[in-house]
Amino acid sequence: MIEPGRAGIYCRMPAPLDLTEPPVASAPLVTDDGKRRTLEFTPGDVQSEMLVSRPAALVLDYTRAMMCFALFAPRPRHIVMVGLGGGSLAKFCHRHFPHTRITVLEIRADVIALRDVFCLPPDDARLRVLHCDAADYLARSPGDADVLLVDGFDRGGLPPTLASSAFYAACRRALRPGGVLVANIFTYDPDYVSSLQRLRDTFDGRVAWFRDIAGNNRILFAVRPATPPMRGQRLLVRLARRGGGAGVGIGWSNRLLARGWVAWLARRRA
Fold this sequence. Notes:
about 270 residues, Rossmann fold, globular
C-alpha cells in the first residue's frame, strides 16, 4: 500500500454550507507492480488503474466507454465529474480537451489526498477538485455543465443518493440545454432496474447505452433537450429509440468503437 501523497483539498460549495465528513470504513488501497498502479476500496475490487509509463491513458473498459460522451457533445465548455477515484477521466479530459473547464466533486478527503500518487495535475484555471457532497453541490449548481460524468462509488457500490430521483433531477438542472449525463451503474446492482427507470423518467426517455461495452458496467447516456434540438441530442434520441430496453449494437463492436474513439481523441493533442 502507498501512503497518501498530500492532504485533502477543501473548497466551499456554491451555498455557504460546510461538508460534514462521512464515516469511512477503511482507507483506500493503492498497489503498484512497477507498471500498473491501482486504487481499491475493497481488496480485489479495482476502482481505478493507471499505467505508470502513461498516466493519462485510459486502461479500464468503462472509462473508455464513458468517453463516448464526445459522440454527443464533442466540444464541451465545462465537464463536471462526480467521483475522482484515481483521476483517470479527469487526467484524460484535462490533456485532450485543452479548452474545457473540468470540475471534479469528491466526498472523500483520503481519495483526494492520492492525487499526486496518480499523477493528477494540480488545480489550475481549467481544473478544480472540490471536496464536497456531489448531491448537495449539484442541487446548487448554476446549470452550466455541458457534460456530467457520474462515477461515484464506495465500498458498497453505487450510493443510493447518487441514483435517486432527486439526484437525477439535480443533474438535469445542472446541465445546459443539449447537455449530456453519463452514469456508470453495475448491472448486478439490486437497484439497477429502478435506477434506470428513474433516469428515464427524469430525462423523458432520452436514455441510451451501448450493449456490453464494459462488462458489468452499464454506461447510460441521457440528454437534456434543447430547442431546436442539437445534433448530439438528435443522435442520442435515435439511439434510445433503436436500443429500446436492450441497448445499441453488440459487445465486441461497441468495445472496438470505444477504443477507436478514445484513440482518435488522444491523437488530437498527443
